Every structure is written in structure tokens, then in C-alpha cells.
């Protein structure tokens, strides 16, 4: 007689150490037991008209990829868009979203973090004005159903065997990339096919998408066809990095250019900001334990703030015109791996009317991550 193996229907966990047993003898999963709440009730699929508005025309390359994604979806092929930061991945996905909705498909746009969910929600709501677009994230889940559901990956548990198309951006971002429970929610909620997007996919993902039933579509240039700013390294001991950084901030203030200053940890960000504000008052601090993200981003965009000191909470999903990027303690390798440095550097030069920007890595030594990030950006620029 063999042993029974319990597999969680929600997250796919089968680790016996994470399986519990209730008094009535039934099993439960300790891995995902904290995820509870209302789940959707399936309703019949309904074909709806779906069209979208773009304030600009897709490039030739973007259009070709958009059409290929639709073709793959029709053939039952899962697609990975491997594209640089600022290449217009979100807009490229609109075509397959419209196709799926118009054919009665249930569509999700999933992202690892709440702040990026809100940004994408407003963009899709503006683009798909004839369709119902809803946002679902922690503390905001009163309305779960719509033609297009924008949600954090944490909320996928509410949609068992539900979506015909899941578009997922930032697949390499924390917390999704290292969370088996969230991966399980994704698989459990998908009954159709997926479109994954990333500027820095892992080797594991790339290998998976080279298999049958998968396709990788690459886009190595930004939508405005300008090169990605190549980071410059200022090699100086950590003790003196503050003074170099302060010098640049004062210069950018005179030039009226906004700046993101990245620090690897909350403690370092708070200490750095406390020192900077003695000399430069028009700045603020942003990390996972402070509130007011939207207000602070609005303030730096409209010129009320000169700079923001932040942790990696601003490494993705943020576009600010004329932005300059400074990374303090860039050789802090446990935080700043190659993918993170590429994503942070990708904040600069994203606007068509402001495609340039400085990116500086402040480090006491070079690292494989620093060298790899610079090499990858230069390789992408060769495609121009």
C-alpha cells in the first residue's frame, strides 16, 4: 500500500512539512492558508466588442510583435516578450487583450506589486474605454469581475480555473520570482494561455520558453529608437560616495532635472536622506514602510521635489521626464544583482521628448553585476 500524497488545489504545494490536518481528518495547506477571502463565481463567457486607443502609433517592430502574440494565442502558444525597459511592452499587449475579450475570453493583467497595478489600471482604463476594467489588490477587492482584471499576483487565488488569457509583466520581480505559492496561484487560475513580459528574464524562464508550445519574441530597442543611457561608474570608497553624490544633486538642481537616488536598504536610504536634506531641502524619502508614494511621485514630476531617495520600490513601472538616476553603494551585491541594476538604469531616458539621462553607479569596487548590467545595455544599444 502506497502513501497518499496531498497536493493543494490552490497553490500546488505537496511538501508534507507544509501540510496540516484538521480535527475532522481533512487536510489543509500551510503554504497558502493565509490567503483567504471571496472568490469569483464563474459566469458564462460573453463575446464583447473590444477596441483600444493609443496616443501614439506602434513602431514597425512593435506592430510585428503585437501581431505575432495574437497569432500565438490563436494557436495555443504561450509567449514571452523579452524587451528592454521603455520598449512599450504594455502597449504591445493591447492587441491580444482586445482579441481575447472580443472572443469571450476572461482576461487578467497580473503584476507583482500593488503600486504598478494602479499605474497599469489607469493606463488600460484610458485605452479600453468601451470595456469594464477593474483593479484588484490588497485592501481593494470589492469588485472582482470585469472585461479586464488588473491585479497583483497575490490576488490570483480568487480566480480558480478562470482566465483564458493572463498577461504578466515584471515576471522577474520580487515577490513573484521566488515565491512558489504565487507561481501556483498563476497556474491554477489559468485555463487558457499566457503572455509573459520582462526586460530581465531568468535563465530558467528563457530555457522553459525554448520548449515546444512556447515562443520568445525579442525587442532590443526603445519605442523612441534612442539608445538606453549607459551607466557610468564612480569608483570611490563608501565614506566618500555621499560627497560625490551631493555634488551631482546640486548640479541637477541648477539644471532643473529630477533625480532618483537609490540606496540598497531602508536603513541606508533613511541615513542618506537625513544627510542630504541638511544641504538640499526639496527632497523626500520613499521605501516600503513609508506612505504617500503617489503624492511623492506627483511632486517630483511637477517640480515640487528635486529628488527622491528610495530603495528598489522605484526600480520598475515608473516614468519621469528628464529623470537622472544615481545608485548609492551599487556594489551591495545581495540587493543589486545584474537584473536589478538594469531595471533601475532603465528609469532614465524613457520619454520620447527627453530620451537622454545620466545613470551613475557609486561603488568602492567593480562587481560582476555592475559589469554585466553595463555590458547588457551596450549590447541592446548595438541593435539601433
Give a verbal description of the structure.
The chain is built from eleven helices and 15 strands. The mean pLDDT is 92. 32% of the residues lie in helices and 19% in strands. β14 (324-327), α10 (338-345) and β15 form a beta-alpha-beta unit. The strands form three sheets. The chain has a seven-stranded parallel β-sheet with strand order 5-6-4-7-8-3-9. Strands 10-15-14-11-13-12 form a six-stranded parallel β-sheet, with helices on both faces. A two-stranded antiparallel ribbon has the order 1-2. The chain has three domains: 1-34, no CATH class; 60-219, 3-Layer(aba) Sandwich (Rossmann fold), CATH 3.40.50.300; 232-381, P-loop containing nucleotide triphosphate hydrolases (Rossmann fold, 3-Layer(aba) Sandwich), CATH 3.40.50.300. It is globular. It has helices at 60-75, 89-92, 94-102, 114-127, 180-189, 203-208, 238-254, 266-279, 293-301, 338-345, 368-381, and strands spanning 19-21, 27-29, 78-83, 107-111, 133-136, 148-152, 163-169, 190-198, 214-219, 232-235, 259-262, 283-286, 307-310, 324-327, 359-363. It has 384 residues and is of the alpha/beta class.
